[in-house]
Design brief:
CATH topology of the largest domain: Rossmann fold
Largest sheet: 5 strands, parallel
Number of strands: 14
CATH architecture of the largest domain: 3-Layer(aba) Sandwich
CATH class of the largest domain: Alpha Beta
Radius of gyration: 27 Å
Number of helices: 14
Oligomer: single chain
Length: 427
């Protein structure tokens, strides 16, 4: 039993110096993770293997391998995970209808378990002893990485330098980097904390932290301001097969190309912006700006197609479970047994979610204006207000009488009780 919890118990021992053979680090190429490389070697007398994931983030990864080596890593892996990210993480979340706290399409949340999964795979390949990440002790990402480690490699030690080291500011990190010959670009600190990938871009910090303040124009990069969007709307048709988007305007596209195309289209029309004051997993509220342009088109289209193809009970239950699904993803429980069970439920519900949805994009708005499906549950003969031979209106009388029977019986009882009480008072 103790071996199962080996990673978590060892990660909490901050004071005892350990000797580890190899540590696999989730590496971004930024200042913090570059400093972590010599810090790990200094404190754990280990060989550091850097793993960088290309999931479509705005960062230039062309020199990330060389930078990791220059910072002291023994080896560096740069993995192109864009297709897997959209196909196996973004699209399943889309099919589930998972939206965190009414707005957030989970762009960061779905990326972390993917990166951590491949980090574990490299650790297996390298026969490593530990896994490390550069997440702070204040955010959600530390949980997402470490729960994935625990699910996929529970025997490995987990190291979280931000919860151990003395670095507390950008200036501290720069000084540490210079003292340890880590390459540092001479750039001023960013106003906002950014996290981006092919699915979304988020901004936090600065004036965004003030709930009363409107996010400034420079808090957006993927979308134009709605008031500056074209004065003529754009129309786009999304085709789905069993809940998976497969074509745009009749042209089949692979997942990456589709999202790239829709990001550009939606961004041009100011679609996909949200500002969210969210509840973090660690117990505090934070405010951020999220841009998910292509994802907003796909989520809107998928939701509308379900209106056409799902029966009432299935759709209602799916909406309820979507909240649980979103919480699981946000909280880092991508590999939890419950999420696997929910995925099976979602898969069943999507059997009929095939068809086309036509959307109108106009000055920040994304609206479904038409839909069709070979599995449509909409019958115009039943719904029409005109003459029809399918629906016998006289049948409604008996239905209403039976549907309201319980309410009628209760009303008669209440009247009898009330009359008895009034008679008692009169006596």
């Amino acid at each position: 039993m103790s071996g199962i919890f080996n990673g978590s118990s060892r990660s909490s021992d901050h004071n005892a110096r350990q000797t580890l053979g190899k540590v696999v680090l989730a590496y971004s190429g930024g200042l913090d993770t570059s400093c972590i490389i010599p810090w790990l070697k200094e404190h754990y007398d280990c060989e550091v293997i850097a793993v960088a994931a290309d999931i479509g983030q705005p960062d230039d990864l062309s020199g990330v391998e060389a930078k990791a080596i220059a910072s002291g890593a023994a080896r560096a892996y740069v993995l192109d995970l864009k297709d897997e990210f959209i196909r196996d993480y973004a699209f399943p979340t889309l099919r589930a209808g998972a939206i965190y706290e009414r707005k957030y399409l989970l762009g960061t949340s779905i990326a972390r378990p993917l990166i951590a999964k491949h980090q574990v795979a490299i650790a297996r390949l390298e026969n490593a002893d530990a896994l490390a990440h550069g997440c702070t002790g204040k955010g959600n990402d530390q949980v997402r990485f470490e729960l994935t480690y625990q699910a996929l490699a529970p025997e490995l030690t987990i190291i979280a330098p931000w919860r151990q080291w003395e670095i507390r500011s950008r200036e501290d990190a720069i000084a540490y980097a210079q003292a340890h010959n880590v390459p540092v670009e001479a750039t001023k600190a960013k106003i906002y904390s950014l996290d981006g990938n092919l699915w979304h871009l988020s901004h936090e910090g600065g004036v965004i932290e003030d709930p009363w303040a409107e996010p400034p124009a420079d808090a957006y990069e993927l979308t134009v301001a709605p008031e500056r969007a074209p004065d003529t709307p754009a129309y786009v048709t999304i085709s789905f097969a069993r809940g998976v988007p497969v074509a745009v305007d009749g042209a089949a596209l692979d997942p990456v190309a589709m999202v790239q195309h829709l990001n550009a289209l939606a961004g041009e029309h100011g679609v996909g912006r949200v500002t969210l004051l969210e509840n973090r997993l660690v117990g505090m509220k934070s405010r951020g700006v999220y841009e998910t342009p292509g994802g907003t088109i796909l989520a809107t289209a998928h939701r509308e197609l379900e209106h056409l193809t799902l029966d009432k009970q299935t759709m209602r239950l799916k909406d309820e479970l979507a909240l649980t699904y979103a919480d699981l993803v946000y909280n880092g429980l991508w590999y939890a047994p419950l999420k696997g069970a929910l995925d099976a439920f979602v898969e069943k519900t999507q059997e009929s979610v095939t068809g086309d949805v036509r959307l109108k994009l106009f000055k920040g708005a994304c609206e479904a204006v038409g839909m069709s499906s070979p599995y449509s549950l909409y019958d115009e003969d039943l719904a029409t207000f005109g003459a029809d031979d399918v629906y016998r209106q006289v049948d409604a009388e008996g239905f209403i009488r039976l549907f309201g029977l319980g309410q009628k019986v209760a009303a008669l009882r209440d009247r009898t009780v009330r009359e008895a009480q009034e008679a008692e008072v009169a006596r």
